[in-house]
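Anyone up for a design puzzle?
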């Protein structure tokens, strides 16, 4: 037997049964002499092209709505499962009339744009590139196309960042590029902007560039609220490793970037002094005041019990606090310090599962984190299958409720089953990630003798603060790391290991 170089890229088709079986469609697993590290066709470029191709397929899937579904029938966009907020909000949020987000009031009850500032800027830039001539239908079509082109660039950035975060595992980027949920939900809303910025931030952290990490997390938080949650796992991990300086740089960068984007829109001035602009605050007040909505555990409970759950905000907040406390204990008691991607996935999944809304496009928040936290095709595809079922279920349910007496679609009981699968799929992936944290020998990344390839300054850093028996167990983990290098570093890249 000959040993494999420790800097050699990991080949999933020789480690993962599902990846090996899937590779038969393109000629089978890569041979031992296959080289992908030089030349134009390297793994990162292949992953980027695959992501663009899947995104394009997702655009094709929206074709029935592009032709007529968004305009000539409320239910046809549901029966074809091709709904998108983008064309509807072009006119509905004043972009078609040239209104300026956060500054100009909208007609109707909404009053102001209910999106964070950076997402609002993204929407506004797309409206600048949309011609003003022609019918409103044609302009909405072009607006969707412009946004789709900009979001495609975000998808490519996302895939490249995931492929580069784990230096020896570039092919894990294919989990993102080939994710069915990415193709189906990428153009429902503008979430991909925040997802791509978050992925850049995680790439910066893996390169030990703490301040740049904070900058991109701050920008991502200016586009969507959830990325700020990543500062929580970084706090716990830096606490355990004693890396306070790096954490301070990340927090400083995040605060600075968020303020630079938000302050010009947030602050208004009149004769009485400075005030918080009402238009800027709309996103935060809307998130607080909106009722429970599709996909959430709270909607399922409400529908089954008949209780409107008017205190869902309180319940969700309490569960989130308790869950974060449990994740902190998990990180401090684990035999080895959890990988950054593992805790990042768990805290974002916790936020989504306890939230009042679990929209279909929220799966985009988790796709890159899942690919980095648990790069195992079987588990990833089980979760994706649940998400695809829910994607179809919610549109069929809306078709059923919007068809009057025809009731063509999925009745309430069927939608509730889709919600259960949706929630259980996410919980399943959380469970296997927690198992990997508690049993690091089950972690497919650490089987190669790696510690935390996405951890930057945390990678192989010694622990300075642990709880319970973690300090004793960590010595056993070091022995395991050496054994893993022998076990997995030998030419026996078998999927049966």
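Challenge accepted. My sequence:
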């Amino acid at each position: 037997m000959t040993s494999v170089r420790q800097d050699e890229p990991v080949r999933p088709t020789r480690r993962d049964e599902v990846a090996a079986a899937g590779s038969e469609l393109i000629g089978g697993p890569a041979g031992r002499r296959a080289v992908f590290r030089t030349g134009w066709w390297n793994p990162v470029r292949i992953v980027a092209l695959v992501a663009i191709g899947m995104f394009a397929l997702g655009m094709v899937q929206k074709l029935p709505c592009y032709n007529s579904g968004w305009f000539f029938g409320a239910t046809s966009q549901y029966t074809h499962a091709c709904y998108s907020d983008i064309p509807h909000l072009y006119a509905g949020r004043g972009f078609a009339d040239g209104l300026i987000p956060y500054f100009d009031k909208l007609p109707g009850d909404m009053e102001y744009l209910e999106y964070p500032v950076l997402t609002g800027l993204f929407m506004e830039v797309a409206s600048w590139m949309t011609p003003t001539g022609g019918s409103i239908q044609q302009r909405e079509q072009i607006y969707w196309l412009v946004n789709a082109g900009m979001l495609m660039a975000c998808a490519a950035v996302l895939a490249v960042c995931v492929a580069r975060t784990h230096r020896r595992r570039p092919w894990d980027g294919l989990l993102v590029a080939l994710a069915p949920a990415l193709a189906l939900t990428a153009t429902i809303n503008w979430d991909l902007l925040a997802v791509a910025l978050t992925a850049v931030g995680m790439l910066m952290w893996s390169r030990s560039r703490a301040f740049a990490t904070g900058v991109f997390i701050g920008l991502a938080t200016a586009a969507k609220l959830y990325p700020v949650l990543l500062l929580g796992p970084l706090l716990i991990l830096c606490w355990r490793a004693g890396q306070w300086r790096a954490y301070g740089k990340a927090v400083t960068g995040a605060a600075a970037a968020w303020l630079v984007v938000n302050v010009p829109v947030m602050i208004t001035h009149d004769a009485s002094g400075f005030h918080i602009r009402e238009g800027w605050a709309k996103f935060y007040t809307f998130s607080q005041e909106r009722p429970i909505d599709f996909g959430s555990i709270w909607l399922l409970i409400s529908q089954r019990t008949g209780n409107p759950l008017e205190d869902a905000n309180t319940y969700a907040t309490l569960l989130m606090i308790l869950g974060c406390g449990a994740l902190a204990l998990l990180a401090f008691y684990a035999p080895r310090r959890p990988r950054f991607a593992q805790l990042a996935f768990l805290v974002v999944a916790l936020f989504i599962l306890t939230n009042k809304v679990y929209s279909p496009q929220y799966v985009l928040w988790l796709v890159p984190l899942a690919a980095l936290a648990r790069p195992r095709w079987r588990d990833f595809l089980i979760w994706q299958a649940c998400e695809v079922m829910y994607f179809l279920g919610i549109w069929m349910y809306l078709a059923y409720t919007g068809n009057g007496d025809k009731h063509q679609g999925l009745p309430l009981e069927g939608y509730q089953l889709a919600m259960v699968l949706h929630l259980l799929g996410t919980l399943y992936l959380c469970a296997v990630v927690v198992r990997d944290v508690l049993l690091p020998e089950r972690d497919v990344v650490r089987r190669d003798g790696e510690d935390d390839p996405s951890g930057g300054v945390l990678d192989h850093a010694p622990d300075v603060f642990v709880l319970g028996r973690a300090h004793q167990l960590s010595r056993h983990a070091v022995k395991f790391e050496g054994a893993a290098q022998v076990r997995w570093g030998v030419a026996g890249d078998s999927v049966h290991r």
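A detail worth pointing out: The chain has 21 helices and two strands.
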